[in-house]
Design goal:
Length: 115
DNA sequence: TACTTGACCGTAT
DNA sequence: CATACGGCCAAGT
């Protein structure tokens, strides 16, 4: 048996999966690219409920200011930092310089206008 | 059903 | 730099 997953979550997962290695995106950017402008919180909700075993580059999703969402010192926090650095992303003091690594913000605004 | 939480965000002070 | 606030609203209790 199989229960249909919320289509919005599917679109969110797809948007996250589309982030290229070595790049990152904010929750808001992912929401916009999933056709859900202004609903960054839903991205967090979806991410929290990521099905076990789904190979999702969750670590490429950060706060809009580039900081890691998970609590400082938590296991997730350390793993996220490690995995980002492993693919060349600059993580300093729990934060990534978005100007240099984030997906194009202007494109997201353009997508927003199409909604 | 009602109320609270929260892997958020932009703006204001 | 740090709080505060309103907007957002699915999930959890």
């Amino acid at each position: 048996m199989r229960i249909k997953m919320d289509p919005r979550h599917q679109r969110i997962y797809a948007a996250i999966a589309a982030i290229p290695p070595g790049r990152v995106a904010s929750y808001g950017q992912i929401a916009a690219r999933a056709g859900l402008p202004g609903r960054a919180r839903l991205v967090g909700t979806a991410l929290r409920g990521t099905p076990d075993g789904m190979p999702l580059p969750w670590f490429r999703v950060l706060h809009a200011d580039g900081s890691i969402a998970l609590p400082r010192g938590s296991r997730g926090f350390r793993e996220q930092s490690r995995r980002l650095r492993a693919e060349g992303v600059d993580v300093r003091n729990g934060r990534v310089p978005m100007a240099a690594f984030a997906l194009d913000h202007d494109l997201d605004r353009a997508l927003w206008c199409l909604e």
